[in-house]
Each structure stands twice: as C-alpha cells, then as structure tokens.
Amino acid sequence: MTGIAYAAGGAPAAGPAGGLASFVPLILIFVIFYFLLIRPQQKKAKQHQIFLNNLKKGDEVVTSGGIFGKITGLTDTVVTLEIADGVRIKVTRASILASAADTRKQAEAPAKGG
C-alpha cells in the first residue's frame, strides 16, 4: 500500500479576526430580521395588550372569530358581549381582536378606492 503524504505546513490558522469575520454575515442577518420582523411584531403585540387593558363597558368590538358585539360586562379574563338584543355571549379577553369602528374603516377603505 502506498503511503499517504501529509502536508507539514498546512493552511495558516485563522486568527481572532478570521473567526470574527466569519460571524459578521450571521450577525448582519440577525440584525435585519430583528428590525424587519421581530421588532414590529413586538410593537404590535404591545399595542394590542394596551387596547385590551383599556376596554370598557359600551365599547363595540370584534372577536377573533369575527363576531361583532357591544361590551356589557368585564372581568380580568372574561368579556360579556351583546351580539343582538338580549343575546349575550362570554368570550376571553384575549379573543377580542379590535374595535368595531376600526374594522369597519378598514373594510370600507378598499371599497372606496376601487
């Protein structure tokens, strides 16, 4: 069997700058993801939490299931909605999606533009 030749010198070892330079693209990608995806999502979640904390009786809201109703009762976790005369349902506070007025404005905006 023939012998295997080993290179005595080999490639020079990467110094501290070489190791850091290989991580720069990964760091740059993380920064871009943070500003384009993570930060806006955190900001939106914070605004939604403030909205949920400021709910009060009489507000008209939309649930995540698409049910429009007027708030008739509130606790820390449960919201009672009147969806028709004399028809009340209880939903979790977290299932409240938005104000009904905001939802109507968004629905009318594309209709006016087209």
Automatic annotation (TrEMBL):
UniProt keyword list: Cell membrane, Membrane, Protein transport, Translocation, Transmembrane, Transmembrane helix, Transport
Localization: Cell membrane
Any Pfam family the entry gives: YajC
InterPro entries: Preprotein_translocase_YajC
GO cellular component: plasma membrane
Topology versus the membrane: Single-pass membrane protein
Any GO BP annotation: protein transport
Protein family: Belongs to the YajC family.
Protein name from the UniProt record: Sec translocon accessory complex subunit YajC
Lineage: Bacteria, Pseudomonadati, Thermodesulfobacteriota, Desulfobulbia, Desulfobulbales
